[in-house]
Every structure is written in C-alpha cells, then in structure tokens.
Amino acid sequence: MGRFQKHLFICTNERPADHPKGCCYHKGGEALKDKFKVELKKRGILSTVRANASGCLDACEFGAAMVVYPEGVWYGAVTESDVEEIVENHIIGGKAVERLQIQDSKYFSHEKINPIKK
Q1: pTM value?
Q2: What three-state secondary structure class fits 50?
Q3: How far is the C-alpha of 78 from the C-alpha of 100, rounded, in Å?
Q4: Which pLDDT score, from 0 to 100, does residue 2 have?
Q5: What share of the chain is helix, strand, coil (3-state, %, to 5)?
C-alpha cells in the first residue's frame, strides 16, 4: 500500500464573478479544504488520507465540488457542515454520501469503496 489510502481533491479554482458556471472558490472551496484537514487530523487519519486543494475539476456548476480517489466518487454542493458526514460515512465507513453525489452520469463511479485501514 502506498503512503495515502485516499485522496480528497477539493476544487479551489477561481473564475471571474460573472462566469456562467460559477466557481468553487466563491462557493467555499478553500474553507472546505481547510475543514477537511482539521477533521482528518482530529480523527488521527491525516497520515493515511490526504485533503488536497485542486485546480479546476470542470464541475464548478456543481460546486463546491470534490472527488475522492481511488474510488472516483464526485460530490457537489459540499459545505463545511458536510465534512464530518463525508469523513465518517465515506472515508471511515466505506459508504458514499448519496445526497451529495453529483447526479450526472459522467461523474458516476462504480468502484467499490473501501474504508480506510488504521
């Protein structure tokens, strides 16, 4: 197994305020990344799960957008209040948070989600 079991890529891309797709930066992407880092550290899994700021994920219309690898599960309209649920259910529990998954077939993943190993 490599250093990290999971990677969370959280879009922090900034577009002009009048861009029709909007942008994840203005939808809280940077604060979201910071909150994930705090939550992962609090649970003692920061060394096995990496929360990364990402450039454009081309999903800003669903923003704040993020993707969890290796499963390739895409989440949209994520807020800071969703962080604990994603960490608890997806990262630790191995079950996607369905209500936050982007409902567009090009973002669907059929990969099995494995909980992290402590």
Answers
A1: 0.90
A2: strand
A3: 7
A4: 66
A5: 30, 15, 55
